[in-house]
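Hi U.,

Before I forget, here's the chain from the pilot set. I'm dumping it here mostly so it's searchable later in email.
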Amino acid sequence: MKTRSRQDAIVRNLRRNGTSTIEVLASTVGASRSTIIRDIAALRDEGFLIQTEPGRGGGLSLDASSIQTTARLSVAEVFALIIGVSAMRAAGNLPFSRLADAGLSKIEKALPSDKIRDLRRLLDCLYVGPLAPQVNTSNLADMAPDLLPAFETAFLKGFFLQFRYRDAKGVETERHVEPQAMLILPPLWYLVAWDPSREDFRHFRMDRIREPVCDEGHSFRRRIVPFDDGVRPIRIV
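Structure:
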C-alpha cells in the first residue's frame, strides 16, 4: 500500500473505531510497527491531533475536530468532484445543486494557494452543454482511468498529448494533438484539441481514447475554441 493510501486508512480506522493500537493499525494496513509510527508522526505534522494513552486499555485516538480532508485532496481529485457535479447539473439530474456548489466552493477555498492556481487553470479548460438529440449514445464505453492524470499534466504544463483513438467505425489511429478544452455533453465527454496534421479543431470522445501520454518535448499555447451555442464554461460559486 502506498504511503498516501496507508495514512488515509489509518485516519479512517481511528475515526471509525475511536481508539486503536499501533499493532492493530499495522495489521490492518499490512505495514510494520516502525512504518506506522512514522505515518503517525507525518499525520501529526499535517495537523491531525492523534493522542496516545499509555497503559492497559490505552492506545491511539484521533481528535475529530482536527480532520482536514480538503488539505489532503489533490488538484485532480477536486477537479474530478467539480466535473462530476457539473455533468450531473448539465444532465438535469442534480438535486440540491446549491448545496453542492456551496460545498465545492468551501473545498476550493480550503486548498493551498498553489493548488487553487492549478485548479483554476483546469477549470478554465472545462465547458458543458446539451447533447444534440440525434447523437447515438448506445455504444458508450468506460473511460480509461489514466485519462484525468494525463489531462492534468497536459493542460497545466501545455504539453502535446499522444493517444490511440478508435472512431465510430472502430478504426484506430495514433493522435498527436494540442489539448485545448474538455467538453461535457452528458452523457458524453470530449477532449477538444487542435490537430496540427489536419490544421483544425477536433472533438475526441473520451471513452474512445486509450493510452494517453504527455509529450514533454512539445508544448503549445492556448487557442480560442469556437463552441456551439449553448456551450458555456464551468463556474462554481
